[in-house]
Specification:
Layout: E1 2-4, E2 9-11, H1 14-34, H2 40-46, H3 48-51, H4 57-65, H5 76-98, E3 102-103, E4 106-107, H6 109-112, H7 115-134, H8 138-160, H9 168-194, H10 199-226, H11 229-232, H12 238-241, H13 247-259, H14 262-271, H15 278-289, H16 292-311, H17 319-334
Antiparallel strand pairs: 1-2, 3-4
Helix pairs in contact: 1-4, 1-5, 4-5, 4-9, 5-7, 5-9, 8-9, 9-10, 10-16, 10-17, 13-14, 13-16, 16-17
């Protein structure tokens, strides 16, 4: 069994391993090429997060989905570059909105330069992704446009918050289906489409991507509380500091509203206070790390990963299907 890519997927099949590693290497070259500009400063800013590394989860999914058709078809690697460029662009914008200081173990673009540079660099990456998409045909452009609309809608819904009468947990799951699930679903869809896979296979891999994308974000929610910066690539408690409400907090609030225990109510009150203070944030993290709500969020992660695995059932048995199933295990492992 061989570990492939920064995400750490275990692959049993040598031919699949060779294909995936070659594909991911080509994606890295494509990312570097796509982020070059005649102005050195733009190149530096655009390549800041590319060179910082990352899990390359979305390109990995493109490569695996392409195994159900021709994995060497000319549109496969460019579509993986498009998906990763789009993801990177959203990170530049997210860090501005969250006022994050660290991303992927390095200073965020807004911390290294300023908010304007970070926003404009994200826009530059969107433009480069669109340029590559134009060569992949109108169907690819439409797929990406629909996903981007969902992504932005998810961000707006998060900013607006749940409306009166909405279940906050259901609202949150809708948000991450848009913000995260949509683009990961596109990774599966484009990989299969560009490889010439059957339409039923394309639909199956799209559904798989949506579900594993949700599990992936829920694992990140758990990591933001449970991990150190070495594991997660960002400062623990970043979401807490910026007032971003994630699933463990929503699970805690639901328990507090249902049971009314003094300990839960006290922890909720702490979370509702000023968590820009390091000491208060550390206290909140300590409370959440030992609270049953964090374990509930882990179980939610497992549930969505299991749904992703079950979605693979219609696919023919092969090494790529096995690898996609292992990918579900990898996502769950990240959440502990």
């Amino acid at each position: 069994m061989t570990v492939v890519g920064p995400f750490g997927l275990s692959v049993r099949d040598h031919a699949l391993e060779t294909d995936v590693q070659a594909g991911l290497a080509a994606v890295e070259e494509g990312l570097i090429e796509a982020t070059k500009n005649g102005v050195p400063f733009i190149t530096e800013a655009a390549q800041h997060l590319v060179r910082a590394g990352g899990k390359r989860f979305r390109p990995l999914l493109v490569m695996l989905a392409a195994q159900f058709g021709d994995p060497h078809a000319p549109g496969v690697v460019p579509s993986a570059v498009v998906v990763e460029l789009t993801h990177l662009a959203t990170l530049y914008h997210d860090d501005v909105m969250d006022e994050a200081d660290v991303r992927r173990g390095v200073a965020s673009a807004n911390a290294r330069w300023d908010n304007s540079v970070a926003v404009l660099t994200g826009d530059f990456l969107f433009a480069r992704a669109s340029h590559i998409l134009a060569d992949l045909g109108p169907e690819a452009v439409r797929i990406q446009a629909e996903a981007f609309e969902r992504l932005v809608t998810g961000q707006i819904l998060e900013t607006a918050g749940p409306q009166e009468g909405d279940d906050p947990i259901a609202h949150y799951l809708d948000v991450i289906a848009g913000k995260t699930g949509s683009l990961i679903a596109v990774a599966g869809r484009l990989g299969a489409t560009m490889s010439g896979a059957d339409e039923n296979v394309v639909d199956t891999l799209t559904q798989y991507g949506e579900r594993i994308g949700t599990a992936f974000q829920l694992a990140d929610d758990v990591l933001d509380i449970a991990s150190d910066s070495h594991e997660s690539g960002k400062t623990p408690g970043t979401d807490l500091r910026e007032g971003v409400v994630t699933l463990p907090i929503l699970r805690l609030r639901a328990r507090a509203a249902r049971d009314g225990s003094p300990e839960d109510l006290a922890l909720c009150a702490l979370l509702d206070g000023d968590l820009t203070d390091d000491a208060r944030r550390a206290e909140a993290l300590a409370g959440l790390r030992t609270h049953p709500a964090l374990e509930e969020a882990r179980r939610d992660t497992i549930r969505y990963a299991d749904e992703a695995r079950n979605a693979l059932a219609p696919l023919p048995d092969c090494a790529a299907k096995e690898a996609l199933s292992y990918l579900c295990d990898s996502v769950v492992h990240r959440a502990g």
